[in-house]
Amino acid sequence: MNLETISEHRSFGGKVGFYRHSSAVNNCTMRFSVFVPPQAAIRKVPVLTYLSGLTCTEETFMIKSGAQRVAAELGLMLVSPDTSPRGDDVPGDPAAAYDFGLGAGFYLNATEKPWSRHYRMYDYVTAEMPKVLFANFPGDRQRQGIFGHSMGGHGALTIGLKNPDVFRSISAFAPICSPVN
User: Fold this and answer.
1) How far apart are CA 10 and CA 27, in angstroms?
2) CA-CA distance, 102 to 90, in Å (whole number)?
């Protein structure tokens, strides 16, 4: 899988990078960010995937959380995908609501047109992004966790509970537990 580097920066002895690739699952270009801790220079490291909340992007967690310091101390790779597909061809909410469409993929697979062509975030987080990640970074596939906040907390719970053989930990901060409400 072809991965394009947008930018990389040194951080707490490791590296924070922002990347994009062509997504067959979402039929558009997808972005994600990765913090690689210094321990990754000598061995594969555990991976902790963070799912952001409504209106966030792949940058939000890496820029605002400050989690890289602790991840560097513990030897954890941090990964954060964008919250939805984006691009001129990707439909948003016709009413332009913030909680549906662009920035609000809910980490689910859409079942209705026109959204079902692009909004396949469950498949992206569980299948496509991990293929890209493990082909390009020294993460340990056997030691993965998933967590998130708000909409991302909902995503972490639903994805983690459906995939107990993949994720060794699941955490949710103020999750949206009933998206229809």
Assistant:
1) 32
2) 8
Alpha carbon distance 43, 57 (integer Å): 29
Q: What are the two backbone dihedrals, phi and then psi, of residue 48, each rounded to the nearest 5 degrees?
A: -120, 115
Biggest CA–CA distance in the chain, Å, is: 50
54 sits in the region (left: phi over 0; alpha: psi -120 to 50; else beta) called beta
Please name the residues in contact with 75: beta carbons below 8 A apart, sequence gap of 6 or more. 37, 38, 39, 40, 45, 46
pTM for the full predicted model:
0.94
Query: Distance of CA 2 to CAs 30, 99, 106, Å?
Result: 12, 31, 26
pLDDT 10s digits, 87-137:
888 877 777 777 777 777 899 999 999 988 999 999 999 999 999 999 999
Average pLDDT over residues 39-65: 96
